[in-house]
Amino acid sequence: MSRVFQPSAHVVEKSRLPSLDKYKEMYKNSLDNPEEFWSEIAKEFYWQTPYQPGKFVSYNFDITKGDIFVKWMEGAVTNICVNLLDRNIEKGHGDKIAYYWEGNHPDDYSRITYRKLKDLVCQFANGLRSRGVGKGDRVSIYMPMILETVVCMLACARIGAIHSVVFAGFSSDSLAERMSDCKAKVLVTSDGAWRGEKLLILKKTCDEALEKAKTKHDHTVETCIVVSHLAKASPCGKLGDIQSLYDWNDDIDVWWHELIENQSNDCEPEWMDAEDPLFMLYTSGSTGKPKGVLHTTAGYLLYAATTFRYVFDYQEKDVYWCTADVGWITGHTYVVYAPLANCATSVMFEGSPFYPDNDRYWAVVQKYKVTQMYTAPTAIRSLMKFGVENVTKHDLKSLRVLGSVGEPINPEAWHWYYNYVGSERCSIVDTFWQTETGGHVLTSLPGATPMKPGAAGFPFFGVAPTILDDNGKVIEGPGEGYLVFSRPWPSIMRTLFGNHERYQSVYFSKFPGYYCTGDGARRDEDGFLWVTGRIDDMLNVSGHLMSTAEVESVLTEDSRVSEAAVVSRPHPQKGEALHCFVILNAGVQPDPSITDALKKHVRARIGAFAAPDAIQFAPGLPKTRSGKIMRRILRKIAVGDTDIGDTSTLADPSIVDQLFKSKP
Ligand code: WT7
């Protein structure tokens, strides 16, 4: 039995949702009367044309009855950028700080008000239009955590262009594939950025990606817009002659500052239908090819705004900080759209938790008097090892809510976060969601719900979770199985860009009538939901999702490798780490130089976060007679667990012994 933690008086006093009963009442209403519930929230926002009553939500989740679709607020017309900026300024908040920006170097910081942000967004939006970008065009963004990144996303939203942010830790191959898949017209980047003491030359990666898009995928990006960031940043390490590190091609490259020079800070928004696309974001797919998850306008706005308000209990004078990179969905929803929709003040942090020292996070909390902090278990675990003095020497009493996201939080990390960062008086919200869900779907709520370390808690308003067994039978009450949802909430993705078939087959074909998350979950005696992890061939390394197929296909690109199988094994900081079984071609001798080369190759092709921890040269793989690799057995071998159970379905059971013997 795990201990139950009740919200502290410190949290309840201020909470807009101060009791469990209040949550239950609102939750029930959100399911019984979705139109009433969400249209009440919609009233706060600006609609050029209001929605047609009676058509608030329509959907089909049952593949046996026809195509899957989800529509919210059909007929309504709006612009999300206007709602985030113009609306707040008109309400008199133009001088409110939208972001405190904290650079990689502690000497680099700035702030921006809602008014100034709108001016910059309009100028850049006009700049994009001058390059021929309009409604429905795709803009790829490969940027560090700087204010221009937010400006760029909102400028796209203002003119109806679909942004596709690619995390700036991805390789040039990954960027090329993503730009080509969505046929991006424009790429926006910066010359580079510091990450701790490491200098990243982003423009160089972009040069390579633009070339690869052309030669490998037959796609030409018309314009590459480059922010000059390094010249403004304090050097954090060795800085050579930056400009010699990348190319400049006058035909497509243009400096950001030159593009916006002379652009007006007025920009007529593009009026968008409720279901017009807002952005797409690639996430790993189990076949290896990334999936372009597409989100639309009105539903995403409503849901992002509402989750932020209740899950973080954001109040007018609070200072909120989400540490996630804008390259992931967490950064989209909870660094950009949701805080601005609530006229919040946020911290945006460019740097690393370890630079210049291992207490940087806590120094930032103290500096800006952060009230809500939102980070990942992997970050917490990697900071725990430096001792609590790093935390306790800072004044963290401003904190009220501590968020966690990306993977189940292990109880040890939960307790550390709760005791030392939160001084036993903050609420921890363990938010379960996905790129596909657009916003939190399972979570605890500060002030309202009790907490159990490691449990994601309860469904958010409008969300109807179900647990199914292998046969698709609903498990009522306590039990464990597949986590699915029986109806849409406003921000669920609408399709995979250019591939509705794949959308239907990946998410809706396994259990007709349900959206299938790919995760397992358990409901305990008290009704808490615990997410138990992926049940498909997906891996979660430091909160980054990737597929076994993706890594395996990269490994087999090496001409010495004939076959590869990748599994994950537990890792104290990363959560999971990659353990790769590699079969070499006949005549090739195992050698540490091959191990090195393969690790480097995975880094280069996918990104540094995908670097394998172990490469094991294997004589063969445990396969069934029909040829399916039994990853269950490989996972046991990776951790040295000899209790592997039944091997009778293996074509060659002796392989198991050989694999244990060949462990590095
Ligand atoms: C997968 C989604 C949306 C957040 C960033 C990751 C895992 C995420 C939790 C949590 C248990 C979690 C799931 C999910 N996950 N948050 N609080 N508890 N598991 O977005 O890359 O789309 O990954 O991350 O496995 O399916 P993503």
TrEMBL record:
Keywords: ATP-binding, Ligase, Nucleotide-binding. CDD domains: ACS (cd05966). SUPFAM superfamilies: Acetyl-CoA synthetase-like. The keyword Iron-sulfur does not apply. Pfam families: ACAS_N, AMP-binding, AMP-binding_C. GO terms for biological process: acetyl-CoA biosynthetic process from acetate. Residues 550-628 form the AMP-binding enzyme C-terminal domain. Its EC number is 6.2.1.1. InterPro entries: Ac_CoA_lig, ACAS_N, AMP-bd_C, AMP-bd_C_sf, AMP-binding_CS, AMP-dep_synth/lig_dom, ANL_N_sf. Belongs to the ATP-dependent AMP-binding enzyme family. This is Acetyl-coenzyme A synthetase. It comes from Pieris brassicae (White butterfly).
